[in-house]
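Protein fold
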Amino acid sequence: MAHSRFSRCRTSNRQPVDAEEPQATPGVPILYRVRGQGPFKPVEKFIALATTHLRERYEHYTRLCDHTADTAWEKRWYECMCDDITATLRTLASLSIELKTLSEIVHNVYGGTSDYPLDMEGYAKGMRLFADMEFRQAPDPGGEPRG
């Protein structure tokens, strides 16, 4: 995923990306579930839930960023989190999303940075923002899974 860098987190109440109707790649039904749990569901539901979750995380880290001294290491980490989340929201808002991209989104480590003080090492490596999900293409009418 491409990452864009901003000098500061946004301070307005606007969302970083306004998505239209979430959808996967047209003509290629994709299903998802938490790994090994329950039935597979249409990926559009995951995209909507992920978008909501990421917007909430974005607002959280923006608030933290806005209330942190410019010289603090945490400020750079919050900015990195906001940048990573914004890049993912842009990907989710795209007109088509492929199976591989969805897997990358849920396995991505958000906010990782290499310049950190020793007491922040746990945060410096970043964090995952999603449970372990599995994605697959819907079976074709003959009953065989695609891809």
